[in-house]
Amino acid sequence: MGVSSLLSDLITNDLRTAIAVVVLTTSLLLNLAKNNATSTSDNNNNNDDGDCCIAKVSGIYIHPVKSMRSISLLESTINLEKRCLTDDRRFMVVYELPLPVYKKKWELNDTTHRFLTQRQCPSLATISATIDVDDFLILEKQSFPHEQTYLAGLWDNVVVVEDLGDDAASFIQRIVDDDDEFSSTNRKIVVRLVSQPRRDNRNYIPDYAKTWNGSKLGLTSLTDGFPILIASESSLDELNKRLIASGKDSIPMSRFRPNIVIQGGNLLQPFEEDKWKIILIGDIVFAIVKACPRCKQSCTDQITGKVSPEPVEIMKSFRQCTSSSDDDGGAVFFAQNAIPIGRIEGRSIKVGDTVKVLERGDPVYID
């Protein structure tokens, strides 16, 4: 079956003219460092058969609370409205912003809170978060909704969030207060645990994220920008080989906090996913949007919350953006941001699903 007929079967008529695939209108195609020993251009050229099966899903993960521990699943549906895995990043921790000196009080549309992640507070990695059958968020005890809402800054965007009450906030506050990032500098921040309202007509999506027809993608969960992150075990194996060769410890996939992990053995080359554009997992089509730049959060142990220089330092030798025109200051890249396109209602992905590459193209590395 050809690519066009397969997409025709999987994508509804009303989406054919406006497929919700994010492309960067100012797309910048960058080369990886010259010493990238894992370049797979020759291997990819040998794979002219577009829809061959080269891998299977080996792991599915959600993060109910942004920057807390992940939950491993055998199967997941996709949220119809936000196009992320169901319950992924529904909640996040925010901290109060100080009242500016030129203001006497907060105005109605002021951003009063801002998101907090492992970048600022690595000990968030030590908190387990689950959602029970009654839709309660469980940290150490159940947390109940609170009527207060805030406007919270999330990178350059503003999102409406609902406070989940004092019990949940106190639990997280104790952990944040003991974090080395704050205790060593005598800094003090007041945090709250919040959720994204079930009904919110604001569209949170980065300004640079556009669909093929030029419109906004629409609602998403409390991610940094895109609904789903896909990572390859082959790429992690290559990274760990380099870490071990340099006398350092290997790292688990959890450092990169992906949603979907794929495994393909000898059929899947390290970082081959850089050149994927459209893939089929089970019976759901995903558009591969751009590589994911990695920050010091990837250096945080997801069990202990301790921070080390790796893997970012070793990735600078073979996974760093080399363009002087980019504003990211030489970011390193691991895993791919993706968006499900077409028909997803009533469908799910599960561990063991096959992965087929329907379309390849030039890599996109931009932050």
From TrEMBL:
Pfam family, any one: MOSC_N
InterPro entries associated with the record: MoCF_Sase_C (IPR005302), MOCOS_middle (IPR005303), Pyrv_Knase-like_insert_dom_sf (IPR011037)
Matches recorded under SUPFAM superfamilies: MOSC N-terminal domain-like, PK beta-barrel domain-like
Gene Ontology molecular function terms on file: catalytic activity; molybdenum ion binding; pyridoxal phosphate binding
Protein name: MOSC-domain-containing protein
Domain MOSC: residue ranges: 191-358
PROSITE patterns assigned: MOSC (PS51340)
UniProt superkingdom: Eukaryota
